[in-house]
Amino acid sequence: MIAVEARRHPNLATSAVVLLGNVDVISVPIPLHCSDGFSEAYYGRPEKLLDLGARLANSDCSFVDAGIGDRYVETLSRDFADGIWDGATVR
Question: When you count CB atoms within 10 A of the terminal residue's CB, does the N or C end of the chain come out lower?
């Protein structure tokens, strides 16, 4: 998803040029148990990404090739079923 979003949105340096240098970058932390339905909010609730409605509600999912999306759902489902997800570490 990061690669997909990077293609859709200009980087900060380009944005600053377009906005004539009037740019403030502010980090907005997303709580682990954020109940909103945007992609980053699912970090703490990845099982929601198995829900087709949740995926369709996120525009970034619509920019991913269907085969990649299907593989993602298959892999995530398997990782939950096998318990691998619970022992996973962020790489």
Answer: C
CA distance 29 to 8: 22
Query: Tokens at residue 26, please?
Result: 């502010």
Token pair, residue 49, equals: 């990404």
DSSP string, 29-55: ---TT--S-SGGGGGG-GGGGGSHHHH
pLDDT tens figures, 68-89: 889 989 999 999 998 888 876 5
pLDDT at position 27 over 60: yes
- How far is 22 from 17, CA to CA, in rounded Å? 8
For the whole prediction, is pTM greater than 0.90? no
